[in-house]
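Reopening this ticket.

The earlier resolution said the output was attached, but the attachment link was broken on my side. Pasting everything inline this time so it's all in one place.
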Amino acid sequence: MLAVQSILLAGLFWALASGSHRRVVENGFAADCRALAVLSPSERRIELRAMLTRDIHRDRFLALFDSRGRLLDGNVAGIPDGVYPGARSMVSPVRPTELPGKDSDVARLALCTMPDGSRLLTGVDLDDAQEALRVVERSLFIGLAPGLLFALGFGLIAGGRAAKQVDVVRGLAERIISGELDRRLPVGAKPDSFGLLCADINTMLDRLQLLVAEIRGVGDDIAHQLRTPVTRLRARIERGLLRAHDRPSFETVAQDALGEIDKLLALVAALLRIRELGDRARRSRFAPVNLDMLVDDACELHRPTAEDLGITLECAIDRVAPIEGDASLLIEALSNLIDNAMKFGPPGGRVQVSLCSVAGEAIITVADEGDGISPAERNLVTQRFYRGRRDCEGAGLGLSLVKAIADLHGFTLDFADQKSAVSLVCPARR
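Inline output:
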């Protein structure tokens, strides 16, 4: 494209230079015709001769001819063939009569008719104009040749470099397709635009590798977690069938089997729920949420359960600014935290739920009187299927679900150092 641009610009410059000379000459021809047309025949011949006298460079051609084409006065022997009155100027050979040692020349000529029927031939010698155009042509060639070489050389180098870069990316893609997920593109110490693109691609590949590893891990966890309840379900059904001898016994076996199946379905539903929360498209359903009303609803929802367990549920709610979020997900996360507090706290203890605002941040805290989560386990409890205590029912997905909801909303899940408390921290608006 640089080469084509250079050629087009050179051609345009040459055309402008050539056309400019032609316009100037034709304007001069028109001026000659107007000036001589207003004079009488005798004055016209005198003025023509005066014009030739003033032409010290001998580059003008002026001649008067009668209506039959016979020369009346001037420095041209005859009207060249193809030159007609009223037509545009044209380049034609002429026979000069007042140039010693020269009986032919090439000039741009124009022919116009005078009021008395005579014809004025006016023209300009093209030697100087052609020499000027040759100088322009040489200048353009001298200036254009290096530009063309540079453009072509740069194009070949840039094209070859781009082709190599594309080949590197294609080679990486082929290796990744073959299963080598740890392959990455090379990035220099001072990357250019392609280097920055390679860095972004590497980051994307890191994320993809992490997701693939998580999927594999989830699959392994699901297989491991489902194996035990499925084995237990099969053994219970088999044992029940061997021992059952009447309808009530078979119904008991069926009820137990249904209970185990419900647990399996709950486990699968929780995993699908966590997977759904990983999809950021869920954020499109966000709307303004009043956290004070949401926390109050969660407290009222769990108060009957707390009374049945002999647990005192205390709620301290301050008014805070509304946030953008999904109310159903947030109350689900808060319900999980309250359920855990009642499950892992001491029997007959207290569970405290509070909402306050600190430095513009809305903080929801759920605390109980238990031992809390040790610092070593805080990164583990939010992983799927991790259970810090094996003596309680559950699949170890509650805090994983809370963490997924918090990440979706941009919240932070914090664990207290001095007591058993978990907080959801909503960052201040900017």
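Reporter confirms the inline version is readable. The longest strand covers residues 105-113. The chain has a mean pLDDT of 81.
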